[in-house]
Amino acid sequence: MKHEDFRETAFAPRDPEATGTSPLGWFATAARRQGRLSWLVTFACALLLVAVVADGPVRQLARSLDPSVVAVLRAVTQFGNSAWPVGLSLLFLAAATIVSRRPNPFAPEALGNLRSALILVIGSVMISGTIASLTKNMIGRARPPMGPDTQVFEFAMMSFRASWASFPSGHATTATACAIALAVIFPRQAFAWLAIGLTAALSRAFLGVHWLTDCLAGIALGALVSLTLRRWMEARQHKFQVEPAFVLRVSVLGCILALGAGYRLTKEAVRRAGRFLRRAATRFGNGPAPRP
């Protein structure tokens, strides 16, 4: 009933003295009550306006950048490469799993938080990257480098070619998803991770490989996937906050345990191989038994 009453009165004139709410506060309240379709239409209109105003000028700026600036941007944009966060997270997850199965000085809850954090990173990057890849191939927007006559709104839907897979940017999507996941895991370094993620995402437009609106759409998609996955996991009692030093200690101990286990397995394999070779040498050295 309370929710229905708000819908009836949310946009009705209010008396500031009676409610004590400023116009900005009223706008924030109304924004929180918007439906998903309303937000989708608002975002689409905003992207359209940005495309009209900024996509062309940003492409021209990208073509005029100094080579040294381009080199820096190429290094920054690697943050959006999904291989490194997924690969490192899988290695850290393997280390945490090895440590949790052996006697260790760490609290079980802390190791559980670390596993949840790594799953958040892997899931955010892989889910958002998969959605972005499928979406941009189906939409089929032309990339800016295709030629000087490439238009801002030029499409070849379902082409499944790299030159026609611009919207949304995959790098921008995964960079944002990874940055938000890391900001959730390391809240004391949240601003740093978000700054790195946004810089990497927008670098795709300044490198001239994507339109600015491709990057903005990728940022929105990456944020949506990462925050949705976080909410889904938190509803199932997952916790993510860990300290960087704890991650390092667990990783080092996991590597030591893995190396020790590998050494023992190798030693056992060598011992069995030697036994087999000695038996084979003895059998073939004696030769066939003489006939009576």
Q: Termini distance?
A: 105 Å
Shape: globular
Structural class given helices, strands, pairing?
Answer: mainly alpha
Under the CATH scheme, the architecture is Up-down Bundle
Query: What order do the helices and strands follow?
Result: HHHHHHHHHHH
Approximately how much beta-strand content do the residues carry? under 5%
Q: Identify the CATH class.
A: Mainly Alpha
Number of strands: 0
In this structure, how is the largest beta sheet organized?
none
Helical residue percent band:
over 70%
Classify the oligomer: single chain
Under CATH, the topology can be stated as Vanadium-containing Chloroperoxidase, domain 1
- The poorly predicted ranges are 6-20
Give the helix tally.
11
- What radius of gyration results from the CA coordinates? 28 Å
What can you see in these coordinates?
With 292 residues, the chain is mainly alpha-helical. The protein has a single domain (35-245), classed as Vanadium-containing Chloroperoxidase, domain 1 (Up-down Bundle), CATH 1.20.144. It has helices at residues 2-9, 16-19, 23-32, 36-63, 67-76, 83-100, 108-139, 170-185, 190-206, 212-234, 244-286. Helix 4 crosses helix 10 and helix 5 (67-76) crosses helix 9 (190-206). The longest helix is centred in the last third of the chain and has 43 residues, at 244-286. It is globular and about 85 Å long. The model is unreliable at 6-20 (pLDDT under 50).
